[in-house]
Amino acid sequence: MAMRRVASTAARAITSPSSLVFTRDLQASPGPKKIVGVFYKANEYAEMNPNFLGCAENALGIREWLESKGHQYIVTPDKEGPDCELEKHIPDLHVLISTPFHPAYVTAERIKKAKNLQLLLTAGIGSDHVDLKAAAAAGLTVAEVTGSNTVSVAEDELMRILILVRNFLPGHHQVINGEWNVAAIAHRAYDLEGKTVGTVGAGRIGRLLLQRLKPFNCNLLYHDRLKMDSELENQIGAKFEEDLDKMLSKCDIVVINMPLTEKTKGMFDKERIAKLKKGVLIVNNARGAIMDTQAVVDACNSGHIAGYSGDVWYPQPAPKDHPWRYMPNQAMTPHISGTTIDAQLRYAAGTKDMLDRYFKGEDFPAENYIVKDGELAPQYR
């Protein structure tokens, strides 16, 4: 049984020299479970679309199903600080569901307090809001709905590339402000055709982006820990670059498509950004903390980065004084790329499926695991 395997994992964690000091008996008990979901509040928008499932009000559309099975389902947007609503439920919850768009940061301290916690689910993709090493050491399972919003994010990245290349936003702002100055836009607007685009990371999202860029007749490069097979490379028309910095020096446009890990945090610092072409465009829908915040601001101010666009920040939600809000030539948005209505339908269905498997003691699809049996998924190691 899956739950017995979790219990044995906890036992191994106690004897592991690298484990944290806190452990607990994770043998699943029969009966109802307490499930807490953390989602953004939609207010008046919650009723505007019946498929708007990713908000606190609609709670992934699984409340009736969970409660019909006798489980308790608590949903809140309040996740920060010692007096927040989430903190009140940490000691006795069994399952915590969160999203990358309104992440509940699950620290080692919270894991230590959560004596009944067994399962951390990400409704979407990206579980870096969880202290994964602490989760592994405590024998927890961390899983996400892999593939649920890859199309959504890849499409959004393509849009952002075009917005930056064509210098779209200043023109749009002219219309809003009642202005008409073609020269102010045209002096830094280009075609995408013929430009060199490199993706740092070529997993599901990176590959989809490269496939969508092929019709634009770009020079496509990619850097990843794994090389694609030759047939797929030929189909996409992308070239593998083993040396990241060499690839970056060739790129007119750089797209970030890697997970946030200890190795990638702050990876694009002042020194690495200096190696990029002057006038480079950067799109980052991966994670904000991959970039050195001030280094990006300084490079945008100097013009070394000619345009920066993305929807990921650190922390999230971004505070009002976050410097990326005010740097020149940015096309930033709140974290929206992976939470289209189509994506919400997919990750809501995926979350329900995993909860159903959890209640039955069944394994999840292998690709959905981020932490299992004390081991981190390869992309997070």
From TrEMBL:
Family annotation (CDD domains): FDH
Domain of life per record: Eukaryota
Ranges of residues in domain D-isomer specific 2-hydroxyacid dehydrogenase catalytic: 66-363
Catalytic activity: formate + NAD(+) = CO2 + NADH
Record-listed substrate binding positions: 125, 149
Site (Important for catalytic activity): 287, 335
Molecular function, one GO term: oxidoreductase activity, acting on the CH-OH group of donors, NAD or NADP as acceptor
Keywords assigned by UniProt, alphabetized: Mitochondrion, NAD, Oxidoreductase
EC number: 1.17.1.9
A GO BP entry: formate catabolic process
Record: residues binding NAD(+): 150, 204-205, 224, 259-263, 285, 311, 335-338
Pfam families per record: 2-Hacid_dh (PF00389), 2-Hacid_dh_C (PF02826)
Domain D-isomer specific 2-hydroxyacid dehydrogenase NAD-binding: 159-337
Subcellular location: Mitochondrion
GO CC terms in record: chloroplast; mitochondrion
Predominant localisation class: mitochondrion
Family indicated by similarity: Belongs to the D-isomer specific 2-hydroxyacid dehydrogenase family. FDH subfamily.
Protein task: Catalyzes the NAD(+)-dependent oxidation of formate to carbon dioxide. Involved in the cell stress response.
Subunit structure: Homodimer.
HAMAP family registered for this protein in UniProt: Formate_dehydrogenase
Protein name: Formate dehydrogenase, mitochondrial
